[in-house]
Amino acid sequence: MDAYIKNLQVEAQQAVKETAHWERKVQDDKDEERNEIRRKRDTAERHQHLVRTQIEENKMRRAEDRREYIEAASSHSFPLFTETFISLDEVEAYNKQVKKDFRKELTDQLECINTYKTLEKKKELDYAAHAKYKNIGEMTDGRKKERQRLAQQGRDMVQSWDRDLRLGNIKKAILSGKDVVNQTLGPGAIAPGESPSGSRRSGSRRS
Hints:
Low-confidence stretches: 185-207
Number of helices: 3
Largest sheet: none
Radius of gyration: 58 Å
Strand content: under 5%
Helix content: over 70%
Distance between the termini: 150 Å
Order of helices and strands: HHH
């Protein structure tokens, strides 16, 4: 048991050392990663500063070259080649024509866009008007059918009321012992024992 406990203690100490070593390794890796990120950031900032410096230097150099060129052109008389010479008036006329063409192109595009919007708006208005007329027609037909239905229902109710009233009167007449044969016959009906011409048929055929 003592040997077993001693082995466990040794293993525990070894585990503690390995854990501490692993933690140091992880911490070192994290520190190295942070240092790498910081180095990359510093390098990027230096590169950015260099690029900006180069841009400013290029601007200054171009401005200086232009100034020197203007000074040299002003102090010397260059030969004039009539084949390649372009006067200031021609340059201004060209720029004016370019602006005019560009303005015309924009105007044409604007007119095309407005025409398209107008057509779309007209299409929407036509569709709305068609839908409106269609709805009005459907509503008119529906109201007409509803009025016809109500009128037919009223006629049916009147006929039913007249029929019930007539049957009630016939029932009262029957109960009072009256002859109700004519009352039970409808218009154009033929009473029992009568021919269609209106004469009563004889009970037996003559020999």
